[in-house]
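testing teh design pipeline on a random one, pls ignore if ur not involved
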């Protein structure tokens, strides 16, 4: 269980660090902001719509993932289930967060930034602490309400 918690925490903080590196690179001038600003108006619209839909779907799914019956059985019955499902949960939030952060700087469009912030706030609710991991591997009828 300790190894799983460490791996999940690593997979939680690495994308956040990568997003911070992206922010630092653009804010310090190492990379040029707005590189795709004027050239691709239709690509911007398609990407924004896609990322909005992805964010709207990913957040509730990631937050409720461990409530689904099959996922719950996998968590209770298999020690690797927590790692596998936890990685999927983190990927659902962190991948769009990184993409939105990058697109914010490439298109200089505030909507991408807002989506990244929303995903960052949602990721707080799935932080893989040891207590959360233990609680999520217990059967539903033994968990405290």
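output:
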């Amino acid at each position: 269980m300790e190894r799983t918690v460490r791996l999940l925490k690593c997979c939680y903080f690495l994308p956040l660090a990568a997003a911070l590196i992206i922010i630092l690179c653009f804010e310090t001038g190492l990379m040029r902001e707005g590189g795709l600003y004027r050239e691709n108006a239709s690509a911007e619209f398609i990407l924004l719509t896609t990322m909005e839909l992805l964010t709207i779907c990913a957040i509730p799914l990631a937050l409720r993932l461990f409530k689904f019956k099959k996922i719950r059985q996998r968590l209770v019955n298999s020690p690797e289930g927590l790692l596998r499902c936890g990685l999927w949960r983190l990927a659902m939030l962190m991948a769009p967060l990184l993409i939105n952060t990058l697109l914010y700087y490439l298109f200089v469009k505030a909507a991408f930034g807002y989506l990244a912030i929303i995903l960052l706030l949602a990721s707080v609710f799935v932080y893989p602490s040891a207590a959360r991991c233990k609680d999520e591997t217990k059967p539903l009828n033994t968990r405290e309400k």
